[in-house]
Specification:
By secondary structure, the chain is of the alpha+beta class. Helix content is about 15%, strand content about 30%. The strands form four sheets. The chain has a seven-stranded antiparallel sheet with strand order 11-10-9-8-7-6-12. Strands 13-14-15-16-17-18 form a six-stranded antiparallel sheet, covered by helices on one side. A three-stranded antiparallel sheet has the order 1-4-5.
Length: about 240
């Protein structure tokens, strides 16, 4: 399956009416073909595919799918041998790749399994237009890549455990990030943002001004018509920074 045909499924606590008004009448699961009027569900904004919770769980999707699983700021100076840029953050979003975010906003997605290509993605470039790297090409340009993969098992801050899904997802990577005290924001390649309050244990997933999910202390929260107080402060910080 080509990258353009793959999906980035995210967990939605609400129907995304502000983003896609056609969801006013609910949705049809693309796997079981049943009609649904209520959430939660899984949705890929790019492909438009929808999965009910039952079908999503069969594909091993969870409320944490396509969110950051692990991050670490490396203690080493890792450079791109072709450019004067260094790695400022390592992270993992999907089981298949370990990401390295560079000082110029570009990303290296290192394949975690032999036989699959890695990707070097310049700032503002899509996966389809990225540079595909074989293992030999990867180690020639980024000789420290093996050491980066080892850090995946030791030393990373782990937000949640992940499992491989039966279908390989469309690669997802960080476009930018910022930190202000206990608040942290990560902006992803599919237009969504993950905002954390590390002290309160609150996590919001946002696109534009629309909150699609809220997790508190690693549990999905059904918030009804308004967000809880701790989540409201996270959203205000995010909106004030735009």
């Amino acid at each position: 399956m080509k990258a353009g045909d793959q999906c980035i499924f995210r967990y939605y606590e609400i129907l995304p009416l502000d983003l896609e008004p056609e969801y006013k009448m609910g949705y049809i699961c693309d796997m079981c073909s049943k009609d649904f009027l209520k959430t939660p569900f899984f949705h890929c904004a790019q492909s438009g595919r929808d999965l009910c919770m039952g079908c999503g769980e069969k594909l091993l999707l969870s409320p944490f799918s396509s969110l950051l699983s692990k991050i670490i700021v490396p203690n080493f100076i890792w450079k791109d041998s072709k450019k004067e840029i260094i790695v400022v953050l390592c992270y993992q979003i999907q089981f298949e790749y370990f990401g390295c975010h560079f000082s110029d906003g570009s990303n290296l997605l290192i394949a975690c399994e032999d036989g699959h290509p890695s990707f070097y993605i310049e700032l503002g470039v899509s996966v389809e237009k990225s540079i595909y790297l074989s293992k030999v090409e990867l180690l020639k340009r980024f000789p420290w890549a093996k050491n980066a993969l080892k850090m995946r098992e030791n030393g990373c801050v782990c937000f949640h455990q992940m499992t491989p899904t039966p279908d390989r997802s469309r690669p997802c990577f960080i476009n930018s990030f910022r930190q202000d005290g206990l608040f942290i924001e990560f902006r992803f390649s599919d237009g969504f943002s993950e905002i954390l309050h590390s002290g309160e244990g609150v996590l919001l997933v946002v696109k534009g001004s629309c909150v699609i999910s809220c997790l508190v202390m690693n549990s999905p929260l059904r918030w009804g018509k308004s967000l809880p107080k701790a989540a409201t402060s996270v959203l205000e910080w995010f909106q004030n920074g735009d």
